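tool=predict chain=A
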Amino acid sequence: MKLFKNIINFLNAQKCEKNYIKKLSDIRNRSNRPIKVCFLIRENQKWSYQSLYEALEKSDEFEPVVLVSLLWLSHIGKDKTRNNLEENYNFFKNKGIKVDYAYKDGKYINLKEFSPDIVFYDQPWDLPKIHTPVIVSEFALTCYVPYGVPILDFKQDYTKEFHKLLYKFFIANKFDLERFENYSKDNSKNCVYFGFSKLDEYFKNNECNKWKDENKTKIIYAPHHSFDKKGLCIATFKENGNFILENAKKHPETTWIFKPHPRFKYSLLRNKIMTLQEIEDYYSKWQEIGSIYEKGDYFDIFKTSDLLITDCCSFLGEYIPANKPIIRLIGNQKVNFNKFGKMIINSCYEASNNSEIEKYFDILLKDKNDYKASLRKEIIKELVDVDKMVSIKIVDYIKKLGGINV
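tool=predict ok
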């Protein structure tokens, strides 16, 4: 079976490569039509392309559009917590972004109908066959920017079924080139590194009105979804979810935003940790003392917060440029971090139980002793290019591919 899968993956990679050569020639040889760039989005919470969309929109050479769709698990009825097609559509519509449906009347629409030249994916997971790179490569170049900073030594960050089939994979940090090559030879062939474009949001001076009381210490609690031992198994909510809520109630000098992973409710139900009613009750308690935020535009709350408490991985890298302390919640499961991830976790305050959460809470908020601030500053230098937005670098790169003078 493994040999058969490897043969199929090899043939698919060969097919995609031939398709891309043909498509690139088509783009370079035509005139009088802008390059149409489609962003296929199933979860607005994983929207990574705001700055890239804006950069493309400002250029006459491009026509960007968001195509909203549905996760496969939601389509087949297994996950009813993320049946969020209209929510996705309204998210982009309200931002003034050109948006259309790639899923209508319970069916996936062939992306060819939108005449794309380039398709960017929001994530590798839960794709219907008709939207996979092997199919889309027949009429468009396929690209991907990770929705989070990969800090684990996790082979799913580069798979033969998705990443290998992309035309270009714009990786989040330079260390991944070596890591992907270690997983399998030639894995880095389609990788391009300019930096992590999602973090361009830190360059913007947007106002944030999502906190209930701006004058209090502003804290984000962001729990992860992975309770399953067959997966990452980094979620610690069973051990500390109620403790953090009760601790928040004890500190009237603080204001909170509860920012759960988009898969959080589904995982609580699937792993029988809470009933739907218990979940709703828990969410209601956070609403009473703070706010709940489940959308994709979360950099405003990152920039204006004072502390992040989380067991998520990608959020650690995304939050670092805010230059605020992080209490990282850790469980019993051993987690293998990649080279860049080890740098990041060294700058976090790691709590493996509730007493340690309380200890760091006092150190950081009561004593104002953020003794790892200097470590974060060094990581920020590796992660963020202060001279030029990464999205501009990607647009210039695409222009060169298309034979457009930069």
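The chain is about 35% helix and 15% strand. The mean pLDDT is 92.
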